[in-house]
């Protein structure tokens, strides 16, 4: 019986790992940030002189008119300021922004935003992360919440996806 349970566990874990694998990644492009547009979006120019708008994978930050929006933009600007940046893009969204993993000299910038309490781990898209990335982002958000960093300094901050829904319904965000 123990062997059957062990075999079933291995099969389930293996199937889960296959289902959770992120999409194929594109090449890593190095370049510079032209302009930070908000807390999770910026324009990028690669060393190949290609220019495009980058949207972070797996994070979401407060909207500009929302409490914490300006702070998230400042936090991203600081993380990307005067540093070499590289991106690994793997798809485009409905606005033709490239969805990318973003790296500076310290590592994963999205994770750094979550650690600082400047962003939510956008779990709606966590299937596009590796299992290790998902675990790191979840743990970082938990630590930021516990330490009441950034957007977690106020109780129950409104997630940006809720704010966007309210805006579509002509309601205010907090």
Describe the structure.
The chain is an alpha+beta fold and 174 residues long. It has a single domain, classed as OB fold (Dihydrolipoamide Acetyltransferase, E2P), CATH 2.40.50.90. It is 37% helix and 25% strand. It contains 5 helices and 8 strands, in the order H-E-E-E-E-H-E-E-E-H-E-H-H. It has helices spanning 2-20, 69-80, 109-115, 131-147, 160-168; strands spanning 28-38, 41-46, 51-56, 59-60, 85-92, 98-104, 107-108, 120-121. The strands form 2 sheets. Strands 1-2-3-6-5 form a 5-stranded mixed β-barrel. Strands 4-8 form a two-stranded antiparallel ribbon. Helix 3 (109-115) packs parallel to helix 4. The longest helix has 19 residues, at 2-20. Residues 27-154 form the TNase-like domain. It comes from Piscinibacterium candidicorallinum. Residues 1-19 form the signal peptide.
